[in-house]
Design goal:
Number of strands of chain A: 10
Largest sheet of chain A: 8 strands, parallel
Number of helices of chain A: 10
Shape of chain B: globular
CATH architecture of chain A: Alpha-Beta Barrel
Largest sheet of chain B: 8 strands, parallel
Radius of gyration of chain A: 19 Å
Number of strands of chain B: 17
Bound molecules: cobalamin, iron/sulfur cluster
Helix content of chain B: 25-40%
Distance between the termini of chain B: 66 Å
Oligomer: heterodimer
Distance between the termini of chain A: 16 Å
Number of domains of chain A: 1
Strand content of chain B: 15-25%
Strand order of the largest sheet of chain B: 10-9-8-7-6-3-12-11
Order of helices and strands of chain A: EEEHHEHEHEHEHEHEHHEH
CATH topology of chain A: TIM Barrel
Radius of gyration of chain B: 28 Å
Strand content of chain A: 5-15%
């Protein structure tokens, strides 16, 4: 007796988002199956990875993370070009300088940086604020305008600032990152509010505020699995690609920072730090993550090799 | 799963002999159905009926044990596809392999024994050692198995497809319930015979799911681990998923735990492949590296994936010293949810701050959840300040609370007498908060 392959009969799909323009434009989402189960549906697009660029030199980054960007950390344009060389599908510009604790840079200054980077690279851009909700809204208004028509992904929109950011995205043809803390109902709620402003559902990416491996990865992992199932069963307010800010979380983990002398029982730092970012990324991809914001070029290389393999068919 | 009393009754002898302690067979059947009696209490039940009742009432995935004593591992018994549905029961056994051609087997085993990691009070380690018959030589295999057994308490997996070599290795290790790995289409009878002889668990490897099913049926054995033969991660992910799905649908041939081999030639991909197996259903995953840098992410992922979604992991509620704090060092209050505590600890450490952390016992829930549930209160914080010993360690009387619970500060100040500093909402803000607000 042959085994009858068990296939779920999904009725719907994840929305497909388009980012960037021209030859390097990319698509994410569009799946009609659980992650990498080609035997039961379509997975038209590979998950994508961005490397971060900051608009001011990061002083707190560990040495392993600074080394690949030696000489370009203070120059966003050069840094962005380097990221493209390293194989990033997208560039994520983080406007850290806008933070009141740092330079409190104006939205106009941020827009000038964004423009300079956009002129220098042809891959799609993700534009992220400094994390202060009101300031991010003001920054996204100007930055979104400066890069009008470039189909960027902008954010992060929260319960507090989504109106301004959604409007900026709608007027200028961008998509929006919708952030809500580790809760599927809050994620849905924010998506509802944003679509009520007439932003098309395929221009929202869900950011569940992930934690790194060892630091609460399981919460976001399960939320992603539930969101994907919701999407496939026809819940339009969960049918968005999921974006994971893995770099910022993984490089906060003690396992990615503790020197060999302090924790010899953990093995060599160089290897374990990269693996922390790699395994956090691949685990979220397995749960349904589509867009990954990362920090180390080695991670890109390893995760790409994995994605290439799991994107090969496993149809029976 | 649960059979009705009547269905069970049909299989009983219906003699009402009372040897089971019940007045009638029907009464005994009802007791069985409600789980209050075991089938072995009836001495007269036929073997055929026993098998029918056992398999009908058995869980969808059998629990299969490897090894003996304290380090015995039990795999299987899973009931769901996704951890949010209930929880995953028996954490994937992580096995590290040694080859019988390896130079210094004892020292590799010593390295494997050291793969033990401490995550705030909890010890997590690898679980098994796989001995691989790479030489093809039976005597060499047996010798290697003996060396491994003499040097570790971990259960063994004996990896050879040659029944003669397996027989030799079992002669020296068979008493300790090793996993025989294993049977395939060409050696099935001989391997099953060995497994029966030593009453040991057996891996059945098929070339694809159809052959696997046929071999399982043919084996007639019940202490099994399943291997679909897939080694490429895309295919293995599909097969692992199919086996779990089929098992939960009570397709009996697949009602056993699985074994997966993360033997990718690229060492990073091997770790990634192993992580996929841990998240997606492998009972045991075999890796070749004994480097702690490769194992730490795997052991950590396993801990996370197998955490009960309803019962968060908590840290002990006591005074923690970070760095080398002194009488002027800051005191941080948080909750004993391990995720919360780890965040705070990590951020205090990354700011190179010497300080004290007091995680209040909130039954392991986060700051905001604890506050909303009435478990993170000014009274509890006060009690912790008074009983943890922190008051004797510091000369100041200032306590820093999470920004999310700023509303607690008035009441806390009133009942504890400590000055309350409201910290940032995110623990990530602690380093800059201390720089600005904690004048030395
Ligand atoms: C997961 C979750 C749960 C899980 C619990 C998991 C757990 N172990 O805590 C479950 C599902 C059980 C749950 C239940 C409930 N929850 Co709940 N839950 C959440 C959720 C989504 C995430 C919490 C979390 O894990 N956060 C991550 C941890 C690390 O965050 P944290 O502990 O706050 O720590 C951070 C900061 O506080 C800070 N920090 C921590 N310590 C310190 C110390 C210092 C000195 C400083 C400076 C900073 C600092 O840094 C940390 C990292 O950034 C939040 C939503 C949210 N966004 O927070 C709701 C949330 C906390 N829950 C909420 C509620 C209401 C509840 C329930 C009461 C719901 C109900 N009616 O049943 C129950 C209560 C449970 C009970 N009776 O025991 C509300 C609280 C609302 C409010 N503000 O009062 C929230 C905010 C959701 C919402 N918006 O409605 N919840
Ligand atoms: S011992 Fe068996 S046969 Fe006798 S009464 Fe009990 S169930 Fe019936």
């Amino acid at each position: 007796m042959a085994v009858t392959i068990a296939k779920e009969k999904w009725t719907s799909k994840v929305g497909e988002m388009e980012l960037g323009t021209g030859a390097k434009a990319i698509k994410v989402g569009g799946e009609t199956s659980l992650p990498f189960l080609h035997f039961e549906g379509e997975i038209p697009n590979r998950p994508v990875m961005a490397l971060e660029v900051w608009d001011m030199e990061p002083t707190e980054w560990p040495d392993i993370l600074k080394k690949p960007f030696d000489g370009v950390l203070a120059d966003p344009v050069a840094w962005a070009k380097k990221n493209v060389e390293y194989g990033a599908d997208l560039i994520a510009i983080r406007f850290m300088s806008a933070h009141p604790d740092f330079k409190d840079a104006s939205p106009e200054e941020c827009a000038a940086t964004a423009k300079a980077v956009a002129d220098a690279v042809d891959v799609p851009l993700v534009l992220i604020g400094c994390g202060i909700e009101e300031k991010d809204a003001a920054v996204m208004e100007k930055v979104g305008e400066a890069l009008s028509g470039k189909q960027c992904l902008i954010g992060c929109a929260t319960e507090k600032n989504y109106k301004t950011i959604t409007a900026a995205a709608m007027v200028n043809g961008h998509s929006v990152i919708a952030s809500s803390p580790l809760d599927i109902n809050l994620a849905k709620q924010l998506n509802i509010l944003m679509t009520e402003m007439n932003l098309p559902t395929n221009r929202i990416a869900i950011d569940p505020l992930v934690g790194a491996l060892g630091y609460g990865i399981e919460y976001a992992y399960s939320i992603m699995e539930r969101a994907r199932m919701g999407a496939l069963m026809g819940d339009k307010m969960l049918a968005m690609p999921v974006i994971c800010f893995v770099g910022q979380e993984a490089w906060k983990a003690k396992e990615a920072k503790s020197p060999d002398e302090e924790t010899p029982e953990w093995g060599a730092l160089d290897k374990r730090a990269i693996l922390w970012e790699v395994v956090t990324t691949t685990s979220f991809a397995l749960a349904g993550g589509s867009i990954f914001i990362l920090r180390h070029p080695e991670t890109i290389k390893h995760v790409n090799a994995h994605f290439a393999k799991v994107m090969e068919s496993n149809a029976y | 799963m649960g059979l009705t009393g009547l269905a069970i009754f049909k299989q009983l002898p219906k003699t009402n002999c009372k040897d089971c302690g019940q007045p009638t067979c029907l009464a005994f059947a009802m007791q069985l159905a409600s789980g209050k009696a075991g089938l072995d209490q009836c001495p007269h039940v036929s073997d055929a009926a026993k098998e029918a009742l056992d398999s009908a009432s058995a869980p969808p995935i059998a629990l299969v044990k490897v090894g003996k004593g304290e380090k015995e591992v039990a795999l299987g018994s899973e009931t769901v596809l996704f951890r949010h549905e209930k929880r995953f029961e028996n954490p994937t056994g992580i096995a590290v392999s040694v080859k019988d051609t390896d130079g210094d087997i004892a020292s590799k085993v010593a390295a494997i024994n050291k793969l033990v990691f401490d995550r705030v009070g909890q010890i997590h380690s690898v679980n098994l050692v796989a001995v691989v018959n790479a030489s093809g030589d039976g005597a060499k295999f047996a010798e290697a198995a003996k060396t491994v057994q003499d040097n570790t308490e971990f259960p063994l997996i004996l990896v050879s497809e040659d029944p003669a070599a397996m027989g030799s290795a079992l002669e020296v290790t068979g008493a300790n319930n090793p996993l025989i790995c294993g049977a395939n289409a060409s050696n099935l009878e001989a391997m099953v015979e060995l497994a029966k002889k030593y009453d040991a668990p057996l891996v059945v490897k098929g070339n694809g799911l159809d052959e696997l099913e046929a071999l399982v049926e043919k084996s007639g054995y019940k202490k099994l681990f399943l291997d679909s033969g897939a080694r490429e991660i895309n295919k293995a992910l599909a097969d692992q998923t199919q086996i779990r799905r089929q098992a939960l649908k009570k397709f009996r041939p697949f009602g056993y735990p699985t074994i997966a081999f993360a033997d990718n030639a690229d060492p990073v991909q091997a770790v990634v492949d192993a992580s996929v197996y841990i998240a997606k259903y492998a009972g045991i995953v075999v890796v070749d590296s004994a480097d702690p840098a490769d194992l730490l992410p795997l052991v950590t992922l396993r801990l996370n994936v197998y955490t009960d979604p309803q019962k968060p992991i908590a840290v002990e509620s006591k005074l923690y010293e970070i760095g080398t704090p002194g009488p002027d060092s800051p005191v941080f209050v948080t909750t004993n949810f391990s995720l919360t505590y780890f965040n705070v600890q990590g951020d205090v450490e990354s700011g190179r701050i010497n300080g004290y952390i007091l995680p209040v016992d909130t039954d392991g829930i986060s700051v905001m959840t604890g506050w909303a549930a009435g478990k993170f209160t000014p009274e509890k914080i006060t009690e912790m300040l008074n009983t943890s010993g922190v008051a004797e360690k510091v000369t100041h009387r200032k306590v820093i609370i999470p920004g999310g619970v700023a509303v607690l500060s008035g009441k806390l100040n009133e009942i504890s007498g400590w000055e309350v500093l409201v910290g940032p909402r995110e623990s990530g803000g602690i380093p800059s908060f201390i720089k600005q607000r904690w004048g030395a």
